[in-house]
Amino acid sequence: MSYIAKMAELKSYIPLMLTLIILLTFNTLTGAQLNKSRQPVFYGASLYYGKFQVHTSTLYPYNGINPYGIEFELSQFMLTDNIRESFGAFIKWGVGINYVNFAHEDLGYSVTGLGYLEPFIKPRGQWRYSLKIGSGLAYMSNPYHEVRNPQNLTYSSQLAFPLFGGLSAYYFINKQLAIKATASFQHISNGGIKQPNLGINYPVIAIGMEFTNHNYMVPPQKKLQHYNKEKRLDLLAGYSLKEDTTNTNNQSVITLFINRTWQVSRINALSISGMFEYHQLQDFDKEIDQWSIAPLAGNEFLLGRLRFGQQIGLYIIKGEEAPNMMLQNYYLRYKINAYLMTGVNLKAHGRVADYLSFQIGIIL
Question: I want to staple 353 with a disulfide (CB 3.0 to 4.6 A). Which of 33, 165, 180, 189 is the partner?
Fold first, then answer.
């Protein structure tokens, strides 16, 4: 698709976005009394524009393409003392839906439902700034097919798991209406459930508007209460059903993580882990038992009961399928109570996801 055609399609979304904003803003400005709330609900709409990242030579045919689309969001700004004490900041949590056209007939488009957390670095004033992380579930329109679409090696299933993180800036026209810009990095893959699965990586700039029909006040800054630094030892077992890269056989991957964390700030902890991985490979008529062992270290964000971690590691014992000695590990875990934890774990090599596993474990 030519640049002019892409811009024309992107511009075609603007009336839809503006109509929604104008109608709801009109209701805000001309409606009856605004509802007072310490947890105001915001409605937003944004236009997307990104740049496809070629992270392996196999994807060079897609060099220079620009994904684009539109997103609608519903979020709640949590302005209570217990939220600030738990997170060290006021936060938003939200859900959204977006449509992204990947600007190439091989790659098609995605429709994604997502959830996110947004801690605010600066929550008051005309200019406000925040961090934003989230994930979701995406429908992918044109997966790899050996006959119909053999060039698309980025994804091969119609369901995929997007992850994103970025920064947002808001300019508040008044307390109810704001212009916002978000710069983020987006990743979409199926977590290794089906091959090929090189993934789609692209940085994005999103420009939009946001409004609320609530009257609210952001409490003034004050000294946070003392907190006890958490030291935690977790033992987690994980399972993934992964398709082998050379055939269509689904392979079971079983993992064991021993994870130790030391809290260093209200929302950060340092972590070290030992990963033990068992993977049964199918090689024609033979089954091969394969083990990998690796120590990992990294950072963990403490988000209420949620734990979002990013780690890097080096294999001590490396399975035959691993492309290099280094690996990355990303996880989102939820503390059910003081003794139980569950979550999802994404293992990757460079910018290519290896597999997504589901975990459950105990806190010792």
Answer: 189
